[in-house]
Amino acid sequence: MSIRSACYETLVIRRIYTYPASILKEVAGDVTDIDGAVAKALDDMVETMYAAPGVGLAAPQIGLSQRVIVLDVDHENQGKHLLKLVNPVIVESEGEILWEEGCLSVRDYQAEVQRAERVLVKAWTVDQKEIEIEGTGLLAVALQHEIDHLDGILFLDHLSRLKRDLYRRKLKKMEREDREAPPPRRAMI
Ligand code: CO
User: Fold this and answer.
1) Own/partner pairs for 60-64, CB < 8 Å, 24+ apart?
2) pTM score, two decimals?
3) Is 180 one of the catalytic residues?
4) Within a domain: residue 189?
5) CATH code of the domain containing 162
């Protein structure tokens, strides 16, 4: 937990739900009013994402079933390219890219997923502006990954049933042994 000195608002690092929590399977609802509660949720998500650390986080991951995501794929210059998006929608996508993904909601597992290489996303900002974000590479992957979260989809759902089954077994073994996940090799999204 930390205090933002400018407005003395208390930011809260929220608990991140992990697979197989049922909230991660739900389709999140559209935000119909960008009010203070939405702004606060976004700020808490940013804090939670940086603390994790991760490059993206979607509201369902902290137990909120609403269509908001945060991303910052440039941790070298933290905050400079921070995105807080409300009701994001992919309006264009092209090309193909294979990316090894990890997710803050999927413990101790990374796998290659095929995504569009470039996407154009329309969304709303906290101050009620409609914006377009164009992303390639990691930003494109992260946008698709986070928007998937809003539709109840995890990167595991893009893998073969065999791979998913192997992961489920690995997870059960980890839980039986009460083992902590080792630090991830990749940026978590
Ligand atoms: Co994720």
Assistant:
1) 60/17, 60/23, 60/24, 60/26, 60/28, 60/149, 60/150, 60/152, 61/16, 61/17, 61/24, 61/104, 61/105, 61/149, 62/14, 62/15, 62/16, 62/17, 63/14, 63/15, 63/17, 63/23, 64/28
2) 0.92
3) no
4) no
5) 3.90.45.10
User: Tens-digit pLDDT profile for the chain (189 aa)?
Assistant: 455 545 556 889 999 999 999 999 999 999 999 999 999 999 999 999 999 999 999 999 999 999 999 999 998 899 999 999 999 999 999 999 999 999 999 999 999 999 999 999 999 999 999 999 999 999 999 999 999 999 999 999 999 999 999 999 999 998 898 877 777 767 788
How close is the Cα of 4 to the center of ligand 1, in Å? 26
Q: What is the Å distance from ligand 1's center to 102 Cα?
A: 7
In a domain, 91, yes or no: yes
Ligand 1 centroid–CA 6 distance in Å is 30
Residue 32 Cα to ligand 1 middle (Å) = 24
Choose the catalytic residue: 47, 76, 132, 146.
Answer: 146
Parent domain of 50:
2-176
Domain membership flag for residue 188: no
